[in-house]
Structures are given as structure tokens and as C-alpha cells.
Write a structure and sequence with these properties.
The complex is a heterodimer of chains A (377) and B (332). Chain A is mainly alpha-helical and 377 residues long. Chain A has 14 helices and 6 strands. Chain A has helices at residues 58-62, 70-75, 82-97, 103-132, 135-156, 178-200, 204-210, 218-223, 229-233, 240-243, 264-287, 341-353, 358-368, 372-376; strands at 18-22, 34-40, 43-50, 307-315, 318-326, 335-339. The longest helix of chain A has 30 residues, at 103-132. Chain A is globular and about 75 Å long. Chain A starts with 17 loop residues before the first strand and ends with a helix. The mean pLDDT of chain A is 86. Chain B has one domain. Classes of the chains: A mainly alpha (377), B mainly alpha (332). Chain A binds chain B through residues 18, 20, 26-28, 39, 41-42, 129-136, 138-140, 143, 199-200, 203, 205-206, 208-209, 357-362, and chain B through 34, 37-40, 136-137, 140, 143-144, 208-209, 211-212, 215-220, 295-305.
Chain lengths: 377, 332
Amino acid sequence: MTVPAPRASTSQFDTNELVINMGPQHPSTHGVLRVVLRLDGERVLDADCVIGYIHRGVEKLCENRDWTHIILLTDRMDYVAAATNNLGYVEAVEKLMQIEVPRRARYIRTILAELQRIASHCLWLGTHAMDIGALTVLLYAFREREFVLDLFEEFCGARLTYNSMRVGGLPLDIPPGWDRKLRSFCDLMEGKLDDYETLLTNNRIWLKRTRDVGVISGEEAIGLGLCGPPLRGSGVSRDLRKDEPNAAYEEFDFDIPLGTRGDTYDRYLIRMEEFRQSIRIIRQGLDGLPEGPVMGKVPRLLKPPAGETYHAIESPKGELGYFLVSDGKSTNPYRFRVRPPSFCNLQGLKRLVRGHLVADVVALIGTIDIVLGEVDR
Amino acid sequence: MLDTVVIPLLKIAVLVNAVLVAVTFLVLMERKVIAWAQSRLGPMRVGPYGILQALADPIKLILKEDITPVKADRYVFTLAPIMSLVPALVVFAVVPFGPDPLYYIGDINVGLLFIISVTSIGVYGIILGGWASNSKYPLLASLRASAQLISYEIAVTMTLVSVILTTGTLSLVGIVEAQRESGIWFGFIQPVALVLVFIGGLAETNRAPFDLPEAETELTGGFHTEYSGMRFALFFLAEYANMIVISAVVVLIFFGGWLRPFPNIAWLGFLDLLPAWIWFVGKVFLFLYVFIWIRATLPRYRYDQLMSLGWKVLIPVAIGNLVVTGVFKVVF
């Protein structure tokens, strides 16, 4: 015989569920995400994500821009990781037009992408820690992110929306002395990573707040279409840098950290390790940087042959894919479609938060590392 | 007349003003200390090194529009911040700043009990404030507050009982005098109690890592989400005044109040050149610094973890400490 769960009788207590709007103006929804939570006390029964508050129609806009101008719009999707957005797009166009990219350009692209990964993870670490209440880590992580932005500024003149790549290569070679600065940044960052870990990794409160919070199994993560660190946190070895190497990744030696439990703490550890692997890749890239031009042979007017292509890279947040259709006649894409990692990972939030407490919701929004500019586009 | 009315009134006026000024500068101190911890400068614009920020903030808050939400319970909404601040100030009536009757307003024989009971009234301010706002986030916050503050009060009170067993008096002056007679600060005799009272104090004053009722990254400010202007400022003042109260209690009970270090070692007598109240205030601010330091370092507990820490760790340890103290008292 099954015993029904005890319920307070409605005559005594009003046991209505509380529907609460978290966002779009909320300090820890990382932008303008609105999460409609159904609460029983503090426990989350269900959550619905409402998105679209900064929808700018990037995909439609791209259909009316020529192939080079689109690079600039890709900056505005994941605006904290503009370089990887550029990289994914220009490589997709190169794939469509079958343009050969010089080896030096591919090396520098790899370095830029990994530098961008560090910057993006710095932002993730800072906001994630602050959502859980560790204020100081935010400032520390932003301090180091500033160095990355300085390096980008020296490379391409911009600090956030870089527009740093071109179809067929790079607009500019690296400035003189830049590699030395990058090396010293790598040394500095390694020390700072230890600082962050001192504050968080073995901190009992941090462990309590992240261990066994938002546990998701590998199969379920695949089923939800998760990608990037949330997928690898569940032990699924899927990293496009290894599986389908782009840029110059096949020439580098690096490890893919994997989680075992699939909880928030594992995802945290994975990203911390990714910092270190990125530094390792950057060092290898600087050591083996080949000489040569940074721009391949590209026609002045880009007009890809009729056809379509899908190209995906591993952005800091996961699998960033571009699907491009060219009609072969005009100088702009017939269709431009993005598979944004943030959007796909955000789908997992509903599953992750169910049964957890309100305080965990912000921790879980932090752990999937979304950027609303990319979710809404 | 002079002794019973005028001088106490003067003392009260001086003390209340001193506390309020201390609170404004404590806010500045918090901002500065956290800024240094985070490799920033903190406020730098108002006055040299931002010192006048302590005055600019209250002026700004007083001049701001004071909004009452339409659906709020107007009277309770106004009453709540007052209920929160007044007990925090009343407590100072029994806090001795020095051995001389000049340095305290009243030395009542149940001083410690008075502090415990009056500070618990302050909890109502938070609960009612969240309730009267008639808004969802403050409601959640006030639910958290009522559970958290009440359960931690049990732990703190239990712990203080073991201290009372050691001193044999509830008078705060008496407790400090007892420490002078025994020649050692009680913090060294009762280290467990010290830690418990300090943790409980953090929780009772809503400070990180137990700042759940106002957890801004979760509840957007918690119980004071709907408050603005001077009413918000009263909550703010109350929080910092309570911090000073807890620090003062910890200093009085565990760190010898106005006594210098090692009060019975004669050759350290030159330390008495500093007036007693400076020793006291200095120690209080040392603890306030620790409060701020903790806030800059630690993440926040979750609600259920906080409750289990309170009920499953602090209260049993407090009871154990009480039993051990009692046994020692009987045996030795």
C-alpha cells in the first residue's frame, strides 16, 4: 500500500505555490534573462526561461550584409567572446569558398581564440562566484581579464568587439613585442589561477554550494543538447578542438578535462583546468609560430559558389556552429543561421533547477555560463 | 535632579550621536577595507581619500524620495525600520566603555540578559519590513530572516550561559571586572564559546556568509527591496549598529572590555596610559574589521545549509560547552 505524501490541509494553511519572476531586471540573471519560477517555499518546482529581451535580428541582418561585413555582426552575439565568434564565421565562409588560410594566420587565430577563452572564463568565474556570494573573486577575475583586453586592444584596436579576423586570414599581423607581453601574461595568469583556487576550490562553503547541485548525467546532457563545459562536466568527451580540429588545433598538444559527477563543482573544476590548457596552447602557439603572410589569396569581392555549409568550433561556452547558405549570385548570404552554445545550454536550466532551492537557481544560471546577447541574437 | 536626569540625558545624547557617527564611518570603513581586499581604491571623490563619503551617503539618503508601495501596509511599513533601529541603539545603554560610571549610562545587574532580549526585538523589524512590503522577494527574505535569526539566537544564548557560569554575574561591568581579577581574558578560558558567539553574531547581524535575508544576488536586496530613502537608511543604520553591538559584546565578554592585554602583569602597566575607552573602542573596531574581512572572503551559505549548521552544529556544541563548563565549575 502506498502512503500518500502528507499534505497540510487547505483549511488550515494556504499552500499555494508562489510564482516569482527572476529577471529580466535581476542582479544575477546575467543580462536580461527572465526566469519564471514556481516555488513551494524556497524549493523550485518548475522554471520557465523567457528570452528575447535583446533580440536584434542578427541573423536577418546578416542576409543583407555582404560576407565581410557580417564579421562585425558576429562580434555582437557573444560579446564577451567576440574573437571565437569571428573565428567560427570566417572559417565557415572559408569552408564554403574553399580558401586556403596561411599557417601563420591559423596559428595566430588559435592563440586569439584561446586568449578569448581565458577572458570569457574570467568573466564566468567572476560572476559565478559573485552569484554565490564570493565578492572578491569577481574583482580579481576582472583584473586579469583587463590584461587580455589590453592585449586585444594592442592587436586590433578594440577591447570588446574585435572584428579581428577576415575571410582568408587576419587583417593584421601581431604587433612587435606582442608575443613577449603575451608570454608574461601567461606566467602571470598561472599564478592568479592559484589565487582563485585558494579562495574557492577547497573552501567549505563553496563546496557546499556547488557539490551535488544541478547534477546531470551524460546521457541526459546529450539528450538536452548541452555542449561545452556543461557536457564535459558530465563526463562526455566532446570537444570540437580535438574531435573536429579547426584553426591549428591539430598541431597542438592539450588535454580535455572531464568531470565525473556532472555537478556544478565539476563544471567549475573543468573551466579552471581549461584556463590552464589555454595557457598551454598559447605557449605552444608562440613557440612554434611560423613565418609567412597572414592573409591568403582571397578575391576582392566575396561571392561564394551556390551551396551550403555548416561549420562548428569550440567557443568558450560550447559548440558554436554557423550554417551558411549562398545562392551563388549575390554578395550576401541567402541564409545565415547560428547554433549558439548559450541558447542550447540554457535549455538545460529548466531540468537543472527542478527540486533545488532559490539560491541554487543563481548558481546554476552561473554554471551554464550564458550570454544573453548570444541567446537572443 | 542633576545626577538623575540631566547627566544621563547628556550621556544618552552623546552616545546616540557617537554611535550614529561611528556607523556612518563604519560604512566607509567597510567600503575601504573591501576595496583594499579587492585591489581597488574604494570611494575617493568626496573629500581627501573619500573620508567625507561618510557624510555624503546619509545626506543623499535623507534627500531621496521616500516611496511607499501602493499595496504595502503603510503603518507597518513605516514602523519596521524604526523597530529595527531603536533596539540596536537602546542596547548601548548598558554597554560600558570604561570602569568609571562616567563611561556607561546604566550598569544593571542583568545587563547581558538585557542585551539578548532587546536585540531580539530588532528581528521583528526585518520580519515586519519584509511582510509589510507586500512583495514576493521581501516575503521570502523575511521568512528566511525569522527562521535564521531565531535559531541562531538560541545558539548564542546557550553559549552565553556557559560564560555566565564562569563569571557568576550578568552585569557587563561585573564580567569585565571578573576578567581583571582572574587576570586573563575569558576568550582564552572559553575559546569554543568565543567562536560560537562570533559565528552566531555574524548570523544574527545578517552579515556574510550568513546574509541570506538580504542576499542581493538571490533576492535582489531581500527584506529592504521595496525600501528607499531614509527608511532604507534606518535599516542600514540598524545593521551596522548591530554589528557594533555584537563586536562590543564579544569584546566585553571575551576580550576584557576596556582592560589592557594581560591586566595582571605589572610591567605592562605603561599600556594603561591609553584611556580605557580607547582600548575598548579599538578592540571593537578590530572585530568590525574581522566582520568586513569575512565578508570580502567567503561565499554565502544556502538557506538549508545555514539552518543545519545552526541546529545540528552550533546548538549541540553550545550545549556541550555548557555541560563541560558546568562540570569544571563543580569539580574545580
